[in-house]
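chain below, 279 aa
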Amino acid sequence: MFGSGLRILVSLLASALLFAGAPARVVSQTVGTDELLLALADPSQIAALSHLAKDPAFSPVAKEAANFPILRTSDAESILKFHPDLVLIASYTRAETKALLQRTGVKLLILEKFESLDDLYANARTIGVALGHPDRAEAAIRNWQHRVAALNKRLQGSRRVRVLPASTFPFTAGADTTFQDVCDHAGALNVAAEAGLRGHQPTPTEKLLTWNAEVLVASGEEGNRVIERLRELPSYKFLPAMKAGHVVLVSGPCMASTAQARLDAYEELARALHPERFK
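prediction:
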């Protein structure tokens, strides 16, 4: 009943947008909105992508972004140089940038939530409608749902591996984070969330031994020596998982993705933690 009503609402909104004219010059200000814009827009609709769009250290769509202009910086001045009729930003966009754009009267689409898979589906639908391509968004969502279902089937009945997000930066990721979302779909138990941490918090060095992590999960984009650097940090050097060499590196842009590249992180981490399910 609810799903049927939502589809009718999306259809009505899309019809209204198409009547008014779909946007012809869309600028994306964040890497997450780059992902969705590239997946859902006509190439001719894309005026510019974020300033990090072509950097493979941050962007999981760097190759796809190669043929499009990018912002010089993420500020309002750089955005407005492309004369957009729609700008895609996120709740974490700097407040002054958001305020300057609002004062110009340019149409803004602000993505507020992106921690979970459901947030991804909602954001794709919102952007699909804004672009005049709601059917394209629904097709993308069906594809993502198929991938998630196939991974769930592989992992069915497996024991969740106790993992700790490890970083050379002095923060760890608890509940309500993209890392937690990856764990939820990769057969992992995030010990930071189990310990009650929410969001990104300072790493509680003195408590890590009590969390009994079996595997440390780190970003492969922190550098070639990330494992050696982690071994030197007091937070991790005494952990049994570190001493045993139980460290998994996952593609940083995918693990941190606020859009569909998170599915690549699900699959990458699941393969590392449950190799027997992928033979």
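Strands lie at 26-28, 46-48, 86-90, 108-111, 161-165, 171-173, 188-190, 200-202, 215-219, 247-250. The CA atoms of residues 29 and 103 lie 17 Å apart.
thats it, cya
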